[in-house]
Design brief:
It is a single chain. By secondary structure, the protein is of the alpha+beta class. It has two domains: about 80 residues, Arc Repressor Mutant, subunit A (Orthogonal Bundle); about 170 residues, 2-Layer Sandwich (Beta-Lactamase), CATH 3.30.450. Helices cover about 40% and strands about 20% of the residues. The strands form two sheets. A six-stranded antiparallel sheet has the order 6-5-4-9-8-7, sandwiched between helices. Strand 7 and strand 8 form a beta hairpin. The protein is globular.
Length: about 280
């Protein structure tokens, strides 16, 4: 499956812009290393539409001065995270270590794995767990499907939140004021005829997901795929992620999903609530 990317706004380095929301622990700005934030913003400036960039282009996409952007790029090359031909720069596979460190150390993927594996064996379908990172869904755990050919997203994949069922349920867990701000800032790109491309259309789905405590999306990203998701809550009722499946629409009409898969998905989420 081709995973669409959603380029973040680059008026300000994203690592600096989002730092206040990255932790519930209050951080004194005097303790911040601004250079680290800028270096991370430089890494994030590369994507599928911009795999190779000059220092000038990185500066434009991050808001960092060109000379500083070039020094960050050369530092990344020195430490093996980027390479260059003298004019353009590109990331190397070593960057994957940064994301893999999260997958290896985070508590959520390790806790859910046996439960999603059991659900996968019981339904014959691939099961995922994901979290919301800004305006994207990040998949952090995946079952090994009993099928020879499985569909869905692998751990580490990112996708715009409005085009997958997981994104709808994760956004539905936001407070009303945070939700309104999120909607106002989100880029509603179209990936199929069914993709919600306005705030009103997306909000309607979010409100329905809140009422139902799960969401089934049909063809938002791919016309042949259906997604089903529900929130993973901890023992205090706080959202910790989403539990989901990606299904072939031809094999799973919505009535059958509601009858056979929704109860099992909800049961697994309820079981996990006691240990999250």
């Amino acid at each position: 499956m081709v995973i669409p990317s959603q380029s973040p706004p680059h008026a300000q380095p994203s690592s600096l812009r989002s730092s206040a929301a990255a932790s519930d622990f209050p951080i004194d700005p005097a303790d911040l290393i601004v250079g680290l934030g800028r270096g991370l913003a430089v890494i994030e400036s590369f994507d599928d539409e911009h795999p190779r960039l000059t220092s000038t282009e990185v500066a434009q996409r991050t808001g960092i001065p060109r000379t500083a952007a070039r020094r960050h790029l050369l530092s990344l090359c020195h430490y093996g995270y980027a390479d260059t031909n003298g004019k353009q720069f590109w990331l190397t596979p070593r960057v994957l270590r940064l994301g893999q460190s999260f997958l290896d150390s985070a508590r959520l993927p390790r806790l859910v794995q046996p439960f999603i594996q059991r659900l996968s064996m019981g339904t014959g379908e691939t099961v995922n767990v994901s979290v919301l990172d800004g305006h994207e869904v990040v998949y952090v755990a995946r079952s090994n499907s009993p099928r020879l050919v499985s569909i869905g997203f692998h751990a580490g994949a990112r996708v715009p939140a409005h085009v997958v069922s997981t994104g709808i349920v994760l956004v539905a867990a936001l407070r009303d004021d945070v939700l309104a701000a999120w909607m106002a800032e989100h880029a509603f790109g179209a990936y199929s005829a069914s993709t919600p491309v306005t705030i009103e259309a997306c909000m309607e789905q979010v409100q329905s997901a809140r009422r139902q405590d799960h969401w089934i999306s049909v063809g938002l990203l791919d016309t042949g795929l259906t997604g089903i998701a529900t929130l993973l809550r901890d023992r205090y009722g706080e959202s910790r992620g989403a539990l989901s499946m990606t299904l072939q629409s031809a094999h799973w009409p919505q009535a059958r999903i509601e009858e056979q898969l929704v109860p099992q998905l909800m049961e697994t989420a309820q079981t996990l609530r006691a240990i999250l």
